[in-house]
Amino acid sequence: MADTRIMLQEILLPVRAGFIGLTLIVALLLNLLPWSSAWLWLKPDFVALVLLYWCVAQPRKVGFVSAWLLGLVMDVADGALFGQHALSYSILAYAGIVLHRRVLMFSGTPQVLHIVVLLLLNDLIVITIRVLAGAGFPGFQYFIGSFIAGALWLPLGVLLKLPQRPQPDPDRV
Amino acid sequence: MEHQPPPFFKTGPAPLARLLIFSALSLTVLVADVRFDYLASLRQVAAVVIYPLQRIAAAPFSIARRIGDFLVTHGSLRTQNAQLAQENFDNAALLLQLKALQAENAQLRDLLAARKRLGTELVTAEVLYAARDPFSRKVVIDKGSRDDIRAGQVAVDNRGVVGQVTRVYPWISEVTLVTDKGQLVPVQNLRNGLRAILAGTGSDGTLELRFVPPNADFENGDELVTSGIDGVYPPGLPVARVTEVERSAEKMFARVTGVPLGGVANHTHVLIAGGSRDLPPRPPAEEPKSPLPKKSRKG
Fold it and tell me: Residue B258 to residues B198, B207, B224, B293: CA-CA distances in angstroms?
């Protein structure tokens, strides 16, 4: 936990917009992998996770437009109702942007707990829309993916911060 | 009224305002999709945009499968070959009979001036992935409107009906599996020709016959095949086997459940068959009957 706290206080280089776009596309690719039935329940929503990460880390750069468009793309890819992910990702982005200072105050497990709650909210919105549209409740295993996404949050943070680390100055040992 | 000072930095509308805008947009899109089905073209555009990503994501798995196909041992090939030769031998006699029967059938149909059965025009398609929507049972296949796939065609594998093409994009299309909740297949019992409607339940491996009277003759083990009366599914394709029949006096309908015969959960290739048969035109709507008595009174 001490390590993460030091890391949060690190001075980082500004993030490139291209890198953000690339990570979102990679997340989309991970979501598009042919997950079969058993793995489907365990699959975290990578797009939601990475989107939430950028909304918390860079709320000025990533926001509603990317969330909404990614939501539409996910709806088409899943053959789901058009707009369900658009709505849930928009609300997720809002929560991430509004709460980003609060989330970054915490480190380690408390931060992950915040994230899991936000991702569960995302799931809950999707379920509400589908049940209103006439589908049956898919069962509580639907929420497992969000807990796994929560477990991936800290490694993801380390990974996505790598390109922002300043290069060590060769003149200073 | 207290006025807020102007902000130091221009950041556009507040997050809450933006949230409201985007939520309203999403809800509009949702309602337009659920109620009116207006957004087919927008869906097409988005589908074309993500098509390369979908192919990239599916590529490693299909390559792995192909490598797996390539690296088979000599022994297994030999056994398989022997097996196939035996099967071929067994089937040859049946095939000869079939040809004679087909000729005879065609002749009889001509005699009856019967409508020709659906041609056996089949397109083989590879299943790219199962749609990751836990609320529905769908798979995405690698053939689309470019390969003359049309919505409404039926997807079968070597054992039976798998599903129906429900949405077509230029290069891919979505197949709704028979197990999807709300996917209906008109079937008949192979044993006695009894017709019924087979519906998915939304869970893998369970199908349900709808509106079956309690005294209807369905038994465990009955095979259900498509009846073809809908004009969409070619007749005679195996769909399901009845596994449970539950009749109780206080319910209006018997509860008949079955399992799908086609490999609904695990398949790599499906055949897309059938299409719209030229049905006779719909009879004109009946004239409203209320004016008729008036006329007779006058006359």
Answer: 9, 5, 9, 51
Q: Do B135 and A87 touch (CB under 8 A)?
A: no
Residues in chain A: 173
Nearest to A84 by CA among A97, A68, A96, A95: A68
* Distance separating alpha carbons of residues B75 and B65, to the nearest angstrom: 20
Query: What gap in Å lies between CA A143 and CA A122, rounded to an integer?
Result: 10
Give buried/exposed letters for A40-72 (b at 16+ CB in 10 A, else e): bbebbbbbbbbbbbbbbbbbeebbbebbbebbb
Closest chain A residue to the Cα of B166, Cα to Cα: A79
Specify the length of chain B in residues. 299
Please state, in angstroms and rounded to a whole number, the distance separating the CA atoms of residues B150 and B43.
16
CB A63 within 8 A of CB A49: no
Report the candidate in B267, B30, B22, B105 with the shortest Cα–Cα distance to residue A89: B22
pLDDT tens across A4-33, in order?
Answer: 444 455 677 888 889 999 999 999 998 888
What is the enclosing helix (H) or strand (E) of A24? helix A17-32
pLDDT confidence band for A2 (50 / 70 / 90): very low
Structure ipTM: 0.79
Relative to beta strand B269-273, strand B195-200 is: unpaired
Domain locations along chain A? 2-163
Is some CB atom of chain A closer than 8 A to the CB atom of B15? yes
Q: Do B18 and A135 touch (CB under 8 A)?
A: no
Q: Is the pLDDT of residue B88 over 60?
A: yes
Beta carbons of A5 and A47 less than 8 angstroms apart: no
Taking only residues 168 to 197 of chain B, the set having a beta carbon closer than 8 angstroms to any beta carbon of chain A reads 174, 181
CATH number of B119-277: 2.40.10.340
